[in-house]
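Good morning C.,

I know you're traveling, so I'll keep this short. The sequence:
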Amino acid sequence: MSTAPQIERLQPVADRACSHRGTGDWVQALLIRTWSALKRIAHRVKVQQSRKSLRVCESVSLGEKRFVAVVQVDEERFLIGGSSGSLSLLSRLPEAKTFAAVLDREAEKI
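The tokens, ready to paste straight into the viewer:
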């Protein structure tokens, strides 16, 4: 019994398997890189979210290295003044009423 005809019939299947093997490696490498990129992005977003407790809302220069700024810490806002050698709290500001906040309060009443 000769096995040559059987080998000839299997040859195209073997060629296709080899070509898919290279494609599989490429897809696997792409998936690994995509996964690692998503992990890096998720880490950066998490770090940025944790830093949002302190924010400079607005700042105005008064010349000669002096400034006045509105700083928000969590939900509280402060007016501060500073120069090259000092920083002073000028006032604690009342809560800013944004449209979204007013809308949320009114929606809770309904």
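Safe travels,
E.
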